[in-house]
Amino acid sequence: MADGHRRPDHRPAPAVRRPEAPTFHRAAPERRVVARPTGIATPREPSVRVVTGPMFIDTASGTFQDRRPPPPPVLSRREFEQELSRLVRAFAENEENPGSVSCTGCRRCVSCMFCEGCEECYRSTHSRRCRASSHLTHCADCDGCHDSAYCVRSENCTRSNYLVLCRSCSECTYCFGCVGLAKADFHILNVKYTRAEYFRIVESLSAELGLER
After folding, report:
1. How confident is the model at residue 41 (pLDDT cuts 50, 70, 90)?
2. If pLDDT is split at 50, 70 and 90, which confidence band does 1 have?
3. Mean pLDDT of all residues belonging to the chain
4. Element (H, E) at 176
5. What is the rounded end-to-end Cα distance, in angstroms, of the chain?
6. What is the pLDDT of residue 117?
7. Rounded CA gap, 21 and 18, in Å?
8. Does pTM surpass 0.70?
9. 152-182 core/surface letters (b: 16 or more CB in 10 A; e: else)
10. Buried residues in 95-108 as b, exposed as e (16+ CB within 10 A)
């Protein structure tokens, strides 16, 4: 073909080669070998004082005030016995009845009501001539009884009702002259009776012994 009508050249253009980026290599750090200490170092005293217990710190003057109670005194046997005897004498001389209401002739009774001639009782009501007892109701001449009602001339009985001349009975009802019974009723001299027999015999015994009815 003529020079003026040459076909375009379709060969791909040669690839342009880019220069490679330079690479840098870091040198490895040197390793140090530290020898272990051969001895144990003594710790230095702390610069801040450690305070334990109830203490007061005065930040203005930098002083400490110990507010802990003093240690209890060490008593000898003689000193202990003397102090105990003094307390017993002081208690025996005191005849007040703190917390009691309408009590007559009572001594050292606490929180009792409407009692007569009782001594060292606690929370008893309508009782007469009882001693060292607690929570009694309508009892008479009882000693060391507790949580009982309508008992007469009984000793060391607990949680019982309607006892007469009984000793060391617990949770008993309607017993006469019984000793050491527990959860019993209608007994006379530790013998079981029917209800009718019990009241018949007790009425006769009360008149014979001159007991209050």
Report:
1. low
2. very low
3. 82
4. strand 173-176
5. 162
6. 96
7. 9
8. no
9. bbbbbbbbbbbbbbbbebbbbbbbbbbeebe
10. eebeebeebeebbb
The answer to whether 153 touches 159, Cβ cutoff 8 Å, is no
Q: Which residue has the tokens 């008479």?
A: 140
Strand-pair partners of 56 = 65
* DSSP letter string, 45-89: PPSS----SSEEEETTTTEEEE-PPPPPP---HHHHHHHHHHHHH
pLDDT digit string, tens, across residues 73-128: 788 889 999 999 999 999 888 889 999 999 999 999 999 999 999 999 999 999 99
Locate 138 and state its tokens: 């309508």
CA distance 213 to 199: 12
Task: Name the pairing type of β-strands 161-164 and 173-176.
Answer: parallel
Q: Which amino acid is it at 213?
A: R
CA distance 23 to 155: 111
**What pLDDT, on the 0 to 100 scale, is given for residue 36?**
61
pLDDT one-digit tens code per residue, 129-138: 999 999 999 9
The percent of residues above 90 in pLDDT, for the chain, comes to 57
CA distance 131 to 117: 9
Q: Which residues pair with 155 in a beta bridge?
A: 143, 167
What is the domain partition of the chain in residue ranges?
A: 92-149, 150-213
R_g of the chain computed on alpha carbons: 50
Count CB-CB contacts under 10 A for residue 111: 15
Phi/psi at 135 (nearest 5 deg)? 55, 50
Q: What angle do CA 46, 50, 54 make, to 5 degrees?
A: 170
